[in-house]
Amino acid sequence: MSFETFIGSIEIRNPLILASGVLGTTYSTLQRAYTAGLGAVITKSIGPRSRSGNPNPSVFALQDIRSLINSVGLANPGYQSFRHDIEQLVKSETPTIVSIFGENQTEFSEVLDGLKDLNILGFEVNLSCPNTDKGGSQIGTDPDTVFNIVKTLKSKTDLPLWIKLTPNVSDIVEIANAAVKGGCDAIVAINTLKAMVIDIQTKQPILGFKRGGLSGSAIKPIGIRYIYDLYESFKDKIPIIGVGGISKGEDVVEYLLAGATAVEIGSAIGIAYPENMIRFITMKIKKYMQEHNYSSIGEITGGAHK
Amino acid sequence: MSFETFIGSIEIRNPLILASGVLGTTYSTLQRAYTAGLGAVITKSIGPRSRSGNPNPSVFALQDIRSLINSVGLANPGYQSFRHDIEQLVKSETPTIVSIFGENQTEFSEVLDGLKDLNILGFEVNLSCPNTDKGGSQIGTDPDTVFNIVKTLKSKTDLPLWIKLTPNVSDIVEIANAAVKGGCDAIVAINTLKAMVIDIQTKQPILGFKRGGLSGSAIKPIGIRYIYDLYESFKDKIPIIGVGGISKGEDVVEYLLAGATAVEIGSAIGIAYPENMIRFITMKIKKYMQEHNYSSIGEITGGAHK
Amino acid sequence: MTRQTLPNTKPIMCKIIKKEEECEDTFTFLLEIPVKVQGAKPGQFIMLWVPGVDEFPIGIAGFENNVLEIGIAKMGKGTEALLKKEVGDYLGIRGFYGKQFQVPREGEVNHLLIGGGFGMTPLKMLTTTLIKQEDKQEIHVFEGARTKSRLMYLEWFQNLHDAGKLVFHACTDDGSYGYKGYPTVDLEKFLQEARGSSIFYVAGPERMMKVIFDIGKKYDTVIDMQMSLADRYMRCGFGVCSYCAVDPTGWRICVDGPIFNTKQLEQITDFGVYKRLETGEKERI
Amino acid sequence: MTRQTLPNTKPIMCKIIKKEEECEDTFTFLLEIPVKVQGAKPGQFIMLWVPGVDEFPIGIAGFENNVLEIGIAKMGKGTEALLKKEVGDYLGIRGFYGKQFQVPREGEVNHLLIGGGFGMTPLKMLTTTLIKQEDKQEIHVFEGARTKSRLMYLEWFQNLHDAGKLVFHACTDDGSYGYKGYPTVDLEKFLQEARGSSIFYVAGPERMMKVIFDIGKKYDTVIDMQMSLADRYMRCGFGVCSYCAVDPTGWRICVDGPIFNTKQLEQITDFGVYKRLETGEKERI
Ligand SMILES: Cc1cc2nc3c(=O)[nH]c(=O)nc-3n(C[C@H](O)[C@H](O)[C@H](O)COP(=O)(O)OP(=O)(O)OC[C@H]3O[C@@H](n4cnc5c(N)ncnc54)[C@H](O)[C@@H]3O)c2cc1C
Ligand SMILES: Cc1cc2nc3c(=O)[nH]c(=O)nc-3n(C[C@H](O)[C@H](O)[C@H](O)COP(=O)(O)OP(=O)(O)OC[C@H]3O[C@@H](n4cnc5c(N)ncnc54)[C@H](O)[C@@H]3O)c2cc1C
Ligand SMILES: Cc1cc2nc3c(=O)[nH]c(=O)nc-3n(C[C@H](O)[C@H](O)[C@H](O)COP(=O)(O)O)c2cc1C
Ligand SMILES: Cc1cc2nc3c(=O)[nH]c(=O)nc-3n(C[C@H](O)[C@H](O)[C@H](O)COP(=O)(O)O)c2cc1C
Ligand code: FES
Ligand code: FES
């Protein structure tokens, strides 16, 4: 039984990837997440300049629905400062995807150009953050913009480009199509859902940025649906990576069956101890594969479409 | 302290309304829900012909996120048969909004024409059901279609027209704008979110229709966000009615503060006993109003925008 | 706190660990529930998912050590597919749903269980419960069917009868087992001769139940009649959709029933007369 | 089961039921928590939301009967706004987060609590815990400040000292209270003279802690040093965002700390040298 997973030309030791923005701001937390047993890690989304992000509160839990809301809003050190962290990751042989963002095509290009010489696994292009005023998910809702950005970035590098989509659209397949036409190497879905929590005692939105994005268990049925719909359209034409609400081995299998080639895990891995969580998840997947006579991860992908 | 709530020209005894599709297929369950203490009730969405809806399973609970997924898919008796149920409701003086749907403008008109002579409170136009192949939420994602349908229906009746929006769009304000320009009397948001659950044992989507809509606690932060965004755009230009994940008095207050004039409650009211649930909710709202010196519901609306 | 917990989950996949022909077109299945669940009560039901086919309500015939017993009668497409399932296959269950039969805790009373067809499944579980009770109350089971081969749990009830645990009154339309005729014949005979009060527990076709209800009303000694309304289309099973509701009370069979008592049945004008289809349309039974 | 429960909630709104000036620019607040919560442990912290202003980590100075005691020192915009809050106002809290000081259950040992500034808040709670312990171990508190008016909990510690519950070593830069100089002076004096082993519990500016750490390493009798790293920017407080993490271990102050022991501190090369800003950039402390 093998856990190796192929995402296009990339091979990783198992299909579990750390989602962007969770444990992703420092090389040491990324290294730690990889050492804990993941197949690869994705950095926090990195932009052209250092940003403080949005005021706190910027992350808190909604326990009753086993979820988080956040408005961290792309707080990041900027690519120039973050090069040092990436270099550490490369040195320690941590398979690293760098998530990048920008407010427009020029900014995306600047970040990619500034990091593409590093020995990383590839880039994830974040077209989907709901927590900024400019850029972010605005960009990810327009097929033409998506096509142009992907095409431009693709012309600049041979490294794999993954495109991360927002669920806050009428038709995710249309956006994915634009990205595929632009030449991307994988589709990643979903980012957080537009959300808000108001405190009724003080009568104000709790997040410092007021608006935020919902992640965690609450969005799993939504993520599964999107992966299923994407797989219906693309089958094995392009790898699809599932994200959203994974906290158990069963959730990983559900995403694979829906059509995911690999998965990303965010909220659940940050809460408490990555080491334990990843061990539990891996054990459960192994057990499932044994019970259902699977010898490789790839065989599970798309199983719910038969 | 008064609970009376004005939604445009309509006055109801409190801001709690039964959402469409829950307890809404028979006059007797609707009557019961009103008797239990609601301000008004909305029927299951009624179309031009009787429909069996989608195969079972078509509704089940996701306990860990306190939510439901459903693909009932507009199973309904058709307006001709349902007239009898509405007549019973009118006779018993149950303030009734009739939810209507169609696959196109002609069908919407047919249903409205077939029921507009009845002494009901108004119509809710369902532009947002995710569980049908044609019509449903397809219709609700295109501003022009929305404008045309609303305008046509409005020209046919003096009864208030509420427009129920889908959250599965890039920009809900754009759609709401089209509805307002078309002349609607209130905006209702949100309907369920596109979702799916796959059983990993048998490797297939559990719902008979495969795809479904997510409701319940998981979608509350999403509903709050949409109401907040709509209120930012419309302020008190048009009443906004909040729906999605309400199960406690606190949730109602949160929606009011976000900008709702009234709220609809679905999933939570069906589970167990409407009578108890509504009593608890009402008690909590009363307590909140006392503690915060509110003398009417209207004063709470939009309080989080100050 | 107004917090409300969802009473149920998505279908829990259970392995069939035993399958046995019960009578013609009817099989008993034993399902192993892989998670700890609270005990089921006689009269409750589950929503049973036959993957890829359909989901529908099924009564509970027994529950012990996390193993669930159900009895399935062939009806249409769904039950047919179900009867083809074999040991080792998986079925999804949601539940346990609905109200149970209310057995009075004290006082001497004759327990009269009356039914036919798959109505015998909740009555089997009720019987199991009743014969465990210490006190010496009379238990009478009245079962009717078209012919001997369609009498459900025949051997099971006959054995209990022979062991003196209950009195089994079987009858068939064709006289192939028990007496020839309807269960109502022996029932009326019993009521005319019986000493003390009686309670009815009835599960079967609704028109039959209505007839029994009218009989029961004639006797002052019948202190309650509890009937399982299982002739209504169900979607959710936990009270949300309203497709199973009865007029004019707005009671949902799945939550407020399926077991209703005399007082309630008197208020349900639909009882024995109308039901709603899966479209919500009303139809004569 | 791999099921993981979120350890926390959205901010719980708590009423301020008492506010008291503690020392210059520093106030004690008592907050009434409206829901039942599990007991806080010395060393743990909360994320405190000043509505409309900011949210930041604050140590726990005491917890009894669902009432939380915190001590706030004026720093910038957020703490300033907080200090303007009055009895009756509401603050939001999330928590309790982080690891506690590890007090050995048995064996004779000197407990040396060393700190300054708002670092005294967890040390206050630790003191409360230690003096409740039956066994007669020595407790020494070393507190330093610029001047007398900035010595936090001065009266509280002095009273305990006078009652013989602990030995209070106060010092100030200007000699306005206690001896003139740094806490390290009395600390070293104590270590040179003391019998038996000692444990350090330290909370204060990180550079001061580094100095103390280097002192402690010189003495074999110091069997453990536990230090509260509270000089890191925090967003979530429960391990998700990583802004608070230290290199090269990838430990998150909020979950894996804020209390670290000698073995851990030796691995944290950032300790006393670098911290991350709210952008994630690294900066010399
Ligand atoms: C509370 C309750 C308990 C029941 N217990 C048992 C039992 O223990 N054993 C047993 O064999 N049967 C039981 N039934 C009946 C069983 O649900 C139907 O026989 C089954 O749904 C038929 O499905 P089908 O696909 O084979 O038939 P179809 O061809 O689909 O329909 C045949 C008839 O079955 C009924 N039916 C179909 N779907 C549903 C549904 N979702 N809900 C309700 N009725 C439906 C309709 O009346 C329909 O006319 C129970 C029904 C209820 C309401
Ligand atoms: C684990 C821990 C426990 C603490 N306990 C206490 C306590 O009991 N009493 C007390 O008065 N203070 C305590 N602090 C420090 C307190 O968090 C800062 O004083 C406060 O955040 C300053 O906010 P400000 O807006 O007033 O200052 P600002 O003007 O915003 O900044 C001043 C300094 O405060 C720090 N700071 C600001 N925001 C944060 C943040 N989100 N996370 C961490 N540091 C921040 C930064 O180092 C910054 O340089 C603790 C800090 C930590 C990490
Ligand atoms: C605190 C936090 C910060 C995040 N930051 C980013 C980010 O910078 N870039 C990005 O593409 N996604 C970001 N995300 C989204 C996650 O990568 C992921 O898509 C989402 O959380 C759903 O997965 P989950 O439910 O497993 O968390 C963030 C999520 C959280 C909770
Ligand atoms: C079983 C079920 C059926 C529904 N049917 C309809 C419908 O026919 N028309 C409609 O507009 N909304 C329908 N809805 C959506 C609800 O009216 C409501 O918008 C949604 O469930 C969110 O509210 P809630 O979280 O309070 O349930 C249905 C919801 C459920 C759970
Ligand atoms: S089956 Fe849905 S309410 Fe009874
Ligand atoms: S504050 Fe977010 S990980 Fe520590």
From the N-terminal CA to the C-terminal CA of chain A, the straight-line distance is: 23 Å
Q: Which descriptor suits the 3D outline of chain C?
A: globular
- Return the CATH topology of the largest domain in chain C: Rossmann fold
Q: How big a fraction of the residues of chain C is strand?
A: 25-35%
- How are helices and strands ordered from N to C of chain C? EEEEEEHEEHEHEEHEHEEEEHEE
Q: pLDDT under 50 segments of chain C (min length 5)?
A: 1-6
Task: Provide a descriptive summary of the structure in words.
The complex is a heterotetramer, with two copies of chain A (306 residues) and two copies of chain C (285 residues). By secondary structure, chain A is α/β, with parallel strands linked by helices. Chain A has a single domain, classed as Alpha-Beta Barrel (TIM Barrel), CATH 3.20.20. Chain A has helices at residues 27-35, 79-91, 105-115, 137-140, 143-156, 172-182, 220-234, 249-258, 267-270, 274-291, and strands spanning 5-7, 10-12, 16-18, 40-42, 59-62, 67-70, 96-100, 122-126, 161-164, 186-189, 193-195, 198-199, 204-205, 212-216, 240-243, 262-265. In chain A, β12 and β13 (204-205) form a beta hairpin. The longest helix of chain A is centred in the last third of the chain and has 18 residues, at 274-291. Chain C is an alpha/beta fold and 285 residues long. Chain C has a seven-stranded antiparallel sheet. Chain C has a seven-stranded mixed sheet with strand order 11-10-9-8-12-13-16, sandwiched between helices. A two-stranded antiparallel ribbon of chain C has the order 14-15. In chain C, a hairpin with a 3-residue loop joins β3 (45-50) and β4 (54-59). Chain C starts with 11 loop residues before the first strand and ends with a strand. The relative contact order of chain C is 0.14. Mean pLDDT of chain C is 92; it is low at 1-6. At the B-C interface, α1, β5, β6, α2 and α9 of B face β4, β7, β14 and β15 of C. Bound molecules: flavin-adenine dinucleotide (FAD) (2 copies), flavin mononucleotide (2 copies) and FE2/S2 (inorganic) cluster (FES) (2 copies). The site of one FE2/S2 (inorganic) cluster has 13 residues of chain C, from loops.
